[in-house]
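Quick one, probably user error.
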């Protein structure tokens, strides 16, 4: 059985973060290993506090997890600081497993999860290690210090701009856009852009970004091609998560 190493923070509400990631992997019959980056105190509607795990402890967890040779992919979620971003990049340096990097910057419950210095470190140190970067529209805009894109042309431009910063592929998620369909844009060098469409959920669902990135990592760990892993993950999130009664709505 393949396994995914999840590098992420906990969310006491259970809506997002590590709980959502592990639940997703269990549903997809993939083993989960973990490196905890933070303990957050939040409900679905209120963000109260973050307790960051020291960078050295995050590194040590990653090193220990990677001694398990079943790890076929890494999913990175919440990182708390530039020091932790650098520690994660260093801990993954010697490994060649695919990395899905979800640039989690804020929680819909109201908290900032990674500040400006952390964002810069993520662009410099982790983006070049990412097999796939999975920003939503506000995250892509924040990483590029540009206004959020709305139209397809501008969304594709921002995805390409992030690709140019060093990620091997970028999946810009259109869930925060408008229109009947939620379209995600997959760009990678040497491939035409791939558009992934699904009916838009009536309201934002907590943890759907976590679940999507984790489901993609599960596909990659099982040896599925990146484009196909993205398609399967989108089908999974749209079907099993958004319409199955598991949904936790954002405020
Ligand atoms: N809290 C933690 C610990 C997370 O890792 C994430 C997303 O990765 C969030 C909150 C974001 O939650 P939401 O989907 O409600 O924005």
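Nope, works fine. Designed sequence:
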């Amino acid at each position: 059985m393949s396994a995914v190493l999840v590098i992420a923070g906990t969310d006491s509400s259970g809506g997002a973060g590590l709980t959502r990631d592990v639940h997703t992997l269990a549903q997809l019959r993939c083993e989960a290993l973990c490196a905890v980056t933070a303990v957050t105190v939040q409900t679905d509607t209120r963000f109260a506090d973050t307790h960051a795990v020291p960078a050295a402890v995050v590194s040590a967890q990653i090193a220990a997890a990677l001694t398990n040779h079943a790890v076929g992919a890494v999913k990175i979620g919440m990182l708390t600081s530039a020091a932790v971003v650098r520690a994660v990049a260093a801990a993954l340096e010697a490994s060649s497993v695919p990395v899905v990097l979800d640039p989690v910057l804020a929680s819909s419950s109201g908290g900032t999860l990674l500040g400006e210095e952390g964002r810069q470190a993520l662009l410099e140190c982790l983006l070049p290690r990412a097999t796939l970067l999975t920003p939503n529209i506000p995250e892509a805009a924040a990483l590029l210090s540009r206004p959020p894109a709305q139209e397809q042309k501008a969304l594709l431009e921002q995805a390409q701009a992030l690709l140019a910063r060093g990620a091997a592929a970028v999946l810009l998620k259109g869930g925060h856009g408008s229109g009947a369909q939620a379209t995600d844009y997959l760009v990678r060098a040497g491939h035409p852009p791939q558009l992934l469409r699904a009916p838009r959920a009536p309201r934002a669902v907590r943890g759907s970004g976590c679940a999507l990135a984790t489901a993609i990592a599960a596909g990659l760990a099982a040896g599925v091609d990146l484009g196909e892993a993205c398609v399967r993950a989108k089908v999974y999130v749209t079907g099993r998560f958004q319409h199955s009664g598991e949904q936790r709505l954002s405020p």
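The CA atoms of residues 180 and 202 lie 9 Å apart.
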